[in-house]
Specification:
The protein is built from three helices and five strands. The mean pLDDT is about 75. It is of the alpha+beta class and about 100 residues long.
């Protein structure tokens, strides 16, 4: 998953950290009828700046949620995970990459 996210961001896998947790007791998500993802991104670029120049820093927070549905692939962070249901949506419904894109 780190590799897929790093590729989507144009970064190295070692610069990507992933933390997963559950949403027990939170409605459809807690009942296992869907999946949600929060993403917090921090990107620091110091290369190419003049000596003594400012470091460019970007911080973002994203969120995405989709219901689980039969007959759909479960794709999280660009990785297909074997499961009897997948995330439903008009696209690939990858909550991890969509939260990162936000």
């Amino acid at each position: 998953m780190r590799r897929a996210i790093a590729e989507a961001l144009g970064s190295l896998p070692g610069a990507v950290s992933v933390k997963a947790t559950t949403n027990e007791g939170l409605g459809a998500i807690g009942r296992g009828e869907g999946s949600a993802a929060f993403a917090v991104g921090l990107r620091v670029a110091a290369a190419g700046r003049p000596a003594g120049g400012a470091v460019v820093m970007r911080i973002g927070v994203g969120y995405d949620v989709h219901r689980l549905a039969p007959g759909r692939p479960l794709v999280l962070g660009g990785v297909t995970i074997p499961y009897e249901r997948g995330l439903d949506g008009h696209s690939d419904a990858d909550v991890v990459l969509h939260a990162l894109a936000d």
